[in-house]
Design a protein that fits this description.
homodimer, Arc Repressor Mutant, subunit A, three-stranded antiparallel sheet, about 10% strand, DNA-binding, WH_DNA-bd_sf (chains A, B), Tscrpt_reg_MarR-type_CS (chains A, B), DNA-binding (chains A, B)
Chain lengths: ~150, ~150
DNA sequence: GTAGATTAGTTTAGGGGGTAAACTAGATGG
DNA sequence: CCATCTAGTTTACCCCCTAAACTAATCTAC
């Protein structure tokens, strides 16, 4: 049992499992108060990859289709998305961002950027930032889930 | 606007915000099916720091006291914790692990260890592991919440 | 000492997240 | 044409969370 590995596991657990929750609570943009993380994630995915059916969202978020069903209903009520019946297959519903939805994504990105920038730029040296980038790239690769 | 910083923010968001969820779903120990993350976190905290009052748990978890109130009720029903009235202050309830609770913590730790080990040891070189440890130490320090 | 304020924890209402299973309605294919 | 498959919805039930109202114990200050 590698001693460094034990340390790594503990760090992983601390930072990833427990730390992330605290971070998310600290991002205090009005956007993050108003919409849930999962809702913003849906918007972000669509913004990145374009309109997609509900089933694909469920798959990407890794949750049951019924969870997505209620989620998109809420997002539609908030007028952040628009549901379009596919012309090929009448069963599938293509989820598209509205103008408002696009704006929300922009604001959310902005909030995250400002938060992390504040966190990092004061407290990280140039070298540490380089190391951060290469380590996190590696982790993303290891976890290899397709880009949200 | 530092280009590397933008990359760092994106990585941070991908890995921390969205990646953690996926990781947690992949840890498929029966323990993680049976008890929620928050419940296990309570057990872990007590196991690390010893018996503590409900209020302190709420504070450490960063949630409302009412959330903890219902949580410890569930944990008591499952016989993982034991609630002891403090002798000094009749209002406070000291939360202590039972033998079963200790065992659950042990098993949860084991599950996480095995999962992360499997993830890392195959896919990380020695140098990368070193870099991981130093980067994550830095992040933990920056986020500086006291050790769960 | 006793009244008022504070503190620890509970309860309830309401809203987020999730699943599984039953269901509707289109698509497909023997 | 009818059985089967598939996309999405609904329902019942679980966990998470908060805010606000509540109980009960402890302080504090007159």
């Amino acid at each position: 049992m590698d001693k460094r590995l034990i340390e790594a596991v503990e760090l992983f657990e601390d930072v990833m499992v427990h730390g992330t929750e605290r971070v998310l609570k600290s991002v205090d943009s009005p956007i993050w108060q108003e919409y849930s993380r999962e809702q913003l994630q849906v918007l972000k995915m669509i913004s990145k990859s374009g309109a997609m059916p509900a089933g694909k969202i469920a798959c990407l978020q890794g949750v049951h289709k019924s969870a997505v069903s209620s989620r998109i209903k809420k997002l539609e009520e908030k007028e952040l998305i628009q549901i379009i019946k596919s012309s090929e297959d009448q069963r599938t519903k293509l989820i598209k961002l509205t103008k408002t939805g696009e704006e929300v994504v922009r604001q959310s990105d902005q909030a995250v950027y400002e938060y992390v920038e504040k966190l990092f730029s004061d407290q990280m040296t140039d070298d540490e930032l380089d190391q951060f980038v290469s380590t996190f790239k590696k982790i993303r690769e290891i976890l290899k889930w397709e880009g949200v």
